[in-house]
Amino acid sequence: MRSASGTRQQPVSRRVRAYFAAVERASDKPVIFDPAKQGAFPLDAPPSPWMGLGEIANFKRSSGTQVGEMRAGARGAVAGQYRGNLDAKVECDFLEWGKLQMALAGGSQHMNVLAEDPNAEARATGGRPLAAVAVLAGSSAGELVVGSDAAAKFAAGDWFAVDADYKQQTGYVGTGIAGAYVKDPADVGRDINYVRRVTFNVARVAQTTASSLLLEQSLWGGVPEGAAIQKVVAFTDREGGSFFQEWSALFVMEEESGGRVCFHYPRLMAAAAVERERAMTIATPMSAVALHGVFTALPHVDENDGEAVLCYRNYFPFV
After folding, report:
1. Longest dimension (CA), the chain
2. Structure pTM?
């Protein structure tokens, strides 16, 4: 196909990038990509609340939506069609490992392993942690004021979780992004540190000052009231559990020429996957390990006409 000017309109791309944003679980509200406003979506600096997960490989979309036929007349000719059960999946390999990529590929609670008290009982996701450090007034999403004694305990490169104490509440917990759902405080042992164990509000120290920590990246959820921080030594996800994450997703075929293609999934949940990791051979015997994610699309009601939609495919001839 050629445009009126004679320019060939065929997208050419060498890579696909992935962007995710958390669905607001309390209101069940997804994050919407509006092509009229965000056609020139800045790939290297995505607007909040979108979070860039880098380049992905083996991006694959599939549809299992059923189409039925209505037949009429003496010879049973097709008189019309209708769509039955809606079904769509998307899968990809995340080439970078990080908290968000691991959580997406796992699909259930994603745990922060907090620095542990040396005398704590051994547990698979970490035992009793070292005491949390209170975040002081004057803090921001990019700088945490903790006082001179606490600042001296951290160094550039350290990871930490930032969130409020667990106060025996039920429901979704975690600032900014729901990290878990608590049905009964007894299930988590009334652990004051539980929210920091599951929060997505994590950051890495870029450098320290005499009384504060400067962050490599602003906190996704900001600084909640009553926040405290605890050092994170590892990230852990688990096969199993009752909690399901829900995300809005945007996959962008980065344009080399001929325009940009964007696939917008308002609501995705992790689906069953045979593989959770994939080995990508570099040079035998060395392999890079990619996180393999498989997702099921949930319906979104389009505000313009009330139709139930699983995915939007957008083509921008010029960006």
Report:
1. 88
2. 0.88
Mean pLDDT of the 247-262 span: 88
Q: Which residues touch 239 (CB under 8 Å, ≥6 apart)?
A: 106, 108, 276
Q: Which residues pair with 90 in a beta bridge?
A: 61, 295
Is the predicted pLDDT of residue 1 greater than 50, yes or no?
Answer: no
Locate tokens 């080439």: which residue? Answer: 95
Which alpha helices (DSSP H) does the chain contain, by range? Answer: 35-38, 99-106, 148-151, 194-198
Output the DSSP codes for 152-201.
Answer: TT--TT-EEEEEEPP-S--EEESSSS--EEES-GGGGTT-TTHHHHH-S-
- Cα separation, 198 vs 243, in Å, equals 12
Around 61, how many Cα atoms within 13 Å sit in the side-chain half-sphere? 17
DSSP 8-state assignment for residue 265: E
SS3 label, residue 255: strand
The domain spans of the chain are 12-32+48-70+77-107+244-316, 110-237
Q: How far apart, in whole angstroms, are the C-alpha atoms of residue 280 and residue 259?
A: 29
